[in-house]
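Hi P.,

Sorry for the delay on this. The queue was packed all week, but I finally got your sequence through. Input first:
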Amino acid sequence: MTIKHLRIFVAVVDNKTMHAAAEKLFISQPTITQTIKEMEEHYGCLLFERFGKRLVITPVGRELLGYARGLLAEYERMEQAIVSLGNLELIRVGATISIGEQMLVPLITEFETMHPKVRLEVVVDNSENLLGRLASGRLDVCVLDGTDRGDEMVLLPFHRDRLTLVAAPGHPLSEEAFITPEQLAQYDFVMREEGSVPRRLLTAYFGRYGITPRIKWSCANLHTVIQAVAAGQGISLLYSVLVQKEIDAGVLVEIPVPELSGERDIALAIHRHKARSQALEHFIEHCRQFGQFRE
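Then the structure:
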């Protein structure tokens, strides 16, 4: 039994199917299938029940999962310790996709300039996958929104972000001092995908007045949203950290609608039992100063 076997086993559990695990690990599905088969032959029992393409972990598999996560976490700690002995401390940082697109590059670049003996390895993914990596010890810290993440995670807010309604320069509403829902409903919207927080808040806002917003574009890609809004395709509701550069450059303008100006915290998430190295403490302090500067 090897570290590779355990990594693949945990990936299958976390991603629900062998196909999804293969995509996540960038290896072929037959390799995943063969590895699970080897593990089941090694232990002489089934680790998963098969229901078509759906896998359900067995009680024995669930027992193995606890040991596997612990061993992988210990292995990652060993890797980090050996790297540190080479006079280069390692911090593994995760970030959600939206934050990674706009905030992470200057944050990481500035830190590495100030701390040349610290190496940062970065993973950008959705929050569920990041928290799984954090729980298993494969990440040291994550940058994400400050929503409660359970008892195992400590959240350290470092930046207050706000929602803002944005449009192309010269939009008819950009000169209005007070805008009613009825006025706003006359225009097209370019929004993130269904289920995103701004999309839900926009729908709820209009719903209070019995109005359905005119969603012209529905995009999973932030850059597409920004480009479409800048081209005059519609208005969008986005967090300011994602569009501040475009607002400062005059590519987008803000439209004041107080009811659509909610706030959120951007925070560092760290496992409650994580031993914080000096390098990690420096990174935490750097994020706090970075957040204060941007505010």
